[in-house]
Design a protein that fits this description.
The complex is a heterodimer of chains A (678) and B (306). By secondary structure, chain A is of the alpha+beta class. Chain A has 25 helices and 13 strands. In chain A, α3 packs antiparallel against α4, α7 runs antiparallel to α8 and α22 packs across α25. The longest helix of chain A is centred in the first third of the chain and has 22 residues. Chain A is flat. About 2% of the residues of chain A have low confidence. Chain B has 306 residues and is α/β, with parallel strands linked by helices. Among the domains of chain B are: 116 residues, 3-Layer(aba) Sandwich (Glutaredoxin), CATH 3.40.30.10; 87 residues. In chain B, strands 1-3-2-4-5 form a 5-stranded mixed β-sheet, sandwiched between helices. In chain B, α6 packs antiparallel against α7 and α11 packs antiparallel against α12. The interface between A and B is medium-sized, with 27 and 34 residues.
């Protein structure tokens, strides 16, 4: 009897503790997924698919396979289900056994999901593409890593680059032969096409005549770009298409006035290529076309078991909602988020669920707190998107200014640096400041905002530059802010310069490391008032643009001993500055150029005075990706100026490196000249 | 004692075997390949492949290089074979070992793997076969390698003949050797055309003209650039002079006509001349690239020109 009581008690405790799990146990995973497929597609679509040749048999096959449904439902958003299912049915019709073949099933599903991502994609184009990739795999033409990819990664391959002609079957066939490289090397594949703003006829790439004399003489557009040339759009699509043709996930992406791309260079690693800015709009994306969205997708889908577990809870919520069990549905969604907080779709789903059922501010506060605790610390940009799109309107509208700004500050304090990459945090700051209240409240909030972020090496530079810009037309406010900042940060009583110097020392290296040229430049310029401009006498420039201008620099032993990072900015331009590496096995200086270019030459100005011989023997290298370096020169002797003439070879470069063995180096200027190629 | 003798004999056999030279040698590393090549004045053939990512390269490596089964019966010249493995995701241990094997190798001129490179013993790169020039079928790859060896050996011999003739001041023999060398499908020695010009200023059979004919991209770009700078009449004159040279192929003549068309296109009031030039390009060598370009330019821009 005692035992029975115990069992009963335990059952009650279990039921009370895990009400959602108990529901989940009542529904099998297959049931939940089958329900979800019908829910997403809708009766009309399901009926239309069933009416196709062997349509019902196809749906039965799909609904009876847990692995296939997992591929379909747990590999990112399912958009335009009719297009997806139509494509999948067409592939299945050709091969009824795809459900039993992991690679075929996964790639067929990826191609079908990609059809839903872009309604302009042609069904025949995708079908041929599916067949060509499978044939390529069977014949050993794809990189071996293709077999290890997950369905969500294969969606990038299925989708192709922005220019669909760069990924036609003819193009794939050509590129598999023409550019076949180890996975990481596709970040340099774009340079196989020469950068030419005007073709050899003198016609601009911006007009229709650029390719007109040549169209038809080549097997495909990538071959034409490699032979005739192109600018950033053609080059980036070429790099993307080359990776994709060989079975490597990649996507082209837009940047302000530029086009770049990203390659999945190793499992879990996405590397930007030919990129000039963090302001990226991804041409293939799951939820939003941002870089941080891609980083979050990676963090989410690299854990497929958690994705499946969380998604089953989400599906259970949908089931409960369909039955009118709103409380159970909410509990299931809450549990889904806690199971896998990186699953962005569930966050959105939960917010929209709350809007549908008109949940109160108390509910939104709990959701808000979950975001700050579970998502914002590592992925603050997607967190911001959820907060600004869903939460603040439902939570802060009726609040006092003080309470509202307190809510904003809670978000700002939930992370201490850029988590998954630089993003437009300035727009978030501006938005919050605008919503803070009247001008005096705004001023107060702005200081609270700065107080929360200014000491962060990553955020500090961006924040200071943003505040300066915010007060662009109000010198008095800017001065007042600086005074406040000095009082806030200056424990030594050295004044504003001391603060700016301190920011230069912490924020500039962080910005350089992240490749955040805008922040580096903003703080660099601000710091330049702290040191005098160096005499330009003796500089004999090479033809072309000064490509180092607008760039960023990092050195070995940054900020140690004799180095003052706040003086680095001037090294890359005519202002002049100073750098001093440490002494280690191979001290180095690395510069990310302000623009990619074909180099005509490099001028390096030594630190005048004693020890100029320390530069003797230093190697000068260039790179297009900051990874693979090619030596282009050597510094010889103890000179004030070194000139490396590259006019004969004109190496393509986006990065420059100076290194030597066993001796520190110190320079006043590093100036690279050439023809811009972006 | 008997055992010691056996060991000594075995060591001696091993040493002798390693030093033996039968014209063909498979080296275990890039550096070792060049050491052997320098010793025996051999061509070096390097297969550059990726064993952990590239199936095609691995197939060639396994079928021909690893098993040393390149059909050697047709190889009459001294040749050293080796391979360079470009790994995609090696462990630290694999990387260290592989870097050691690949030491000295630079992927000069390689844009696609697998690649088969041919070198002189001093490291001069003669040719890179890659992309569609490396067939998929092993038997055809074998043939490609043999052709590469033959061409490279020919290069080596012709260069030696030319150098010898140069020392002996036998200009006729030097010119003959250089003329033949210049037509091999390999990277050419620096300044070879300059030397041929010195030996045969009159360009007796037009070889220099044909070999020094600029790439269409350069000819068109130079024509555009100079005409836009106001040198149109001068450029036109030079191009017409080129047309008078009877040694050019029909394709080269068509290329010149396109250049003339470009020259006129950038001069105001020359539309009719441009139309004629592009049409002539199309007619002189139908089916060739410059003819196609000429046709398109005419059709798109000048068809309605009177």
């Amino acid at each position: 009897m005692k035992s029975l009581s115990k069992i009963l008690l335990l059952t009650i405790i279990t039921f009370l503790s895990f009400p959602v799990i108990s529901h989940a146990q009542n529904r099998s995973s297959l049931e939940l997924m089958s329900f979800e497929l019908n829910r997403i597609a809708g009766v009309e679509t399901i009926n239309s698919i069933a009416a196709l040749d062997q349509g019902q048999k196809f749906l039965d096959s799909l609904n009876s396979s847990e692995t296939w449904l997992t591929d379909l439902l747990d590999s990112g958003p399912v958009q335009n289900p009719k297009r997806i299912l139509t494509m999948l049915h067409r592939i299945w019709l050709q091969d009824n056994y795809i459900a039993n073949d992991d690679l075929k099933r996964s790639f067929a599903t990826a191609c079908s999901l990609a059809m839903g991502m872009n309604t302009r994609l042609d069904e025949d184009w995708m079908f041929n593409r599916y067949q060509y990739f499978l044939d390529s795999w069977d014949n050993g033409r794809l990189n071996k890593c293709f077999s290890d990819l997950a369905t969500w990664e294969r969606r990038y391959i299925a989708r192709g680059p922005q220019y669909s002609s760069y990924s036609s079957v003819e193009s794939l066939k050509y590129l598999q032969q023409r550019i076949c490289l180890p996975r990481k090397d596709y970040v340099g594949a774009c340079w196989q096409a020469p950068y030419r703003g005007h073709n050899c006829f003198g016609d601009s790439v911006q007009g229709p005549k650029y390719y007109q004399p040549f169209r038809g003489s080549f097997s495909c557009d990538p071959e034409m770009a490699i032979t005739v040339g192109g600018v950033c759009g053609a080059l980036s699509n070429l790099g993307t298409a080359a990776a994709i043709a060989n079975g490597i996930p990649a996507t082209s992406m837009g940047e302000p006035g530029h086009c770049a791309y990203a390659v999945n260079t190793a499992p879990g690693i996405w590397t930007p290529a030919y990129s000039l800015s963090w302001k990226r709009g991804m041409h293939t994306s799951f939820y939003r076309g941002t870089w941080t969205d891609l980083m979050l997708a990676q963090a989410c889908f690299e854990k497929p078991d958690l994705v499946h577990k969380a998604a089953n809870l989400q599906r259970l919520a949908h089931w409960n909602e369909s039955l009118g069990n709103i409380k159970d549905a909410d509990l299931a969604l809450a549990q889904a988020i806690k199971t896998h907080p990186m699953h962005y779709a569930i966050w959105i789903d939960r917010a929209e669920f709350a809007i549908r059922h008109k949940f109160d501010a108390k509910w939104w506060k709990a959701y808000h707190d979950d975001i700050l605790e579970l998502l914002a610390p590592a992925h603050e940009e997607p967190a911001w998107h959820l907060l600004s799109k869903y939460v603040y309107d439902n939570l802060t509208t009726k609040m006092s200014n003080a309470a509202r700004t307190e809510i904003f500050l809670q978000y700002l304090k939930s992370f201490d640096d850029f988590g998954a990459g630089r993003w437009n945090i300035e727009s978030a700051w501006s938005w919050m400041t605008g919503k803070a209240g009247g001008s005096s409240t705004q001023r107060k909030f702005l200081r609270q905002l700065a107080d929360a972020t200014i000491t962060s090496p990553g955020l500090g530079a961006a924040c200071l530059a943003w505040v300066k810009n915010y007060y662009e037309k109000d010198d008095r406010q800017w001065l007042e802010f600086q005074n406040w900042l000095v009082a806030r940060l200056d424990s030594n009583g050295d004044g504003a310069d001391s603060i700016i110097r301190q920011l230069g020392r912490t924020a500039m290296p962080a910005a350089a490391k992240r490749g955040d040229l805008a922040s580096y430049q903003a703080i660099g310029k601000l710091c330049s008032r702290l040191y005098k401009s160096t005499d330009t006498k003796g500089i004999d420039p090479f033809p072309g643009e000064l490509l180092t201008e607008g760039g960023a620099m990092n050195i070995s032993g940054i900020g140690e001993h004799y180095d003052s990072p706040e003086q680095h900015w001037g090294v890359l331009n005519m202002h002049g500055g100073a750098l001093h590496t440490n002494t280690t096995t191979t001290p180095w200086v690395e510069v990310k150029l302000g623009n990619f270019g074909l180099l005509n030459g490099i001028v390096i100005q030594n630190r005048p005075g004693g020890f100029m011989s320390r530069a003797n023997g230093a190697r000068v290298l260039v790179s297009t990706d900051g990874q693979d370096w090619q030596q282009v020169g050597k510094l010889e002797g103890a000179k004030l100026f070194y000139r490396i003439d590259l006019s004969q070879t004109k190496p393509q470069a986006g990065y420059l490196r100076i290194e030597r063995d066993g001796q520190c180096m110190h320079f006043a200027r590093i100036l690279a000249y050439g023809q811009r190629t972006n | 004692m008997n055992n010691l003798k056996k060991i000594i004999i075995l060591i001696a056999i091993a040493v002798l075997a390693s030093n033996s030279w039968a014209g063909v040698y498979f080296a275990n590393s890039y550096e070792q390949a060049f050491q052997a090549a320098k010793k025996h004045n051999s061509i070096v053939i390097v297969l550059v492949h990726g064993s952990d990512w590239n199936v095609k390269g691995q197939k060639i490596y396994t079928s021909l290089f690893k098993t040393k089964t390149i059909n050697r019966s047709s190889v009459k010249d001294n040749v050293v074979f080796t391979d360079v493995d470009i790994l995609q995701s090696p462990s630290e241990f694999q990387k260290t070992n592989n870097d050691q094997r690949n030491k000295g190798f630079k992927p000069q001129g390689i844009h696609s793997y697998p690649a088969i490179c041919s070198y002189l013993p001093d490291g001069t790169l003669l040719a890179v076969k890659q992309g569609q020039d490396v067939p998929t079928e092993v038997i055809k790859v074998n043939k490609t390698v043999i052709t590469l060896i033959e061409d490279s050996a020919k290069y080596q011999n012709l260069k030696a003949t030319a150098d010898k003739a140069n020392k002996a001041k036998d200009t006729k023999a030097e010119l003959a050797a250089l003329t033949e060398l210049a037509q091999l499908p390999l990277n050419q020695p620096k300044d070879i055309l300059k030397r041929i010009k010195e030996l045969d200023p009159a360009d007796t059979d037009g070889l220099q003209a044909r070999l020094s004919f600029p790439h269409w991209q350069k000819l068109f770009a130079d024509t555009t650039s100079r005409t836009q700078k106001g040198q149109g009449p001068e450029v036109e004159k030079e191009l017409n002079e080129m047309l008078k040279n009877k040694v050019y192929t029909k394709e080269q003549l068509a290329t010149i006509h396109v250049a003339i068309g470009i020259c006129h296109r950038h001069q105001a009031g020359h539309e009719a001349q441009a139309a004629v030039a592009f049409q002539q390009a199309a007619q002189i060598a139908p089916g060739t690239f410059p003819a196609e370009v000429g046709t398109r330019c005419y059709e798109a821009w000048y068809k309605k020109t009177k």
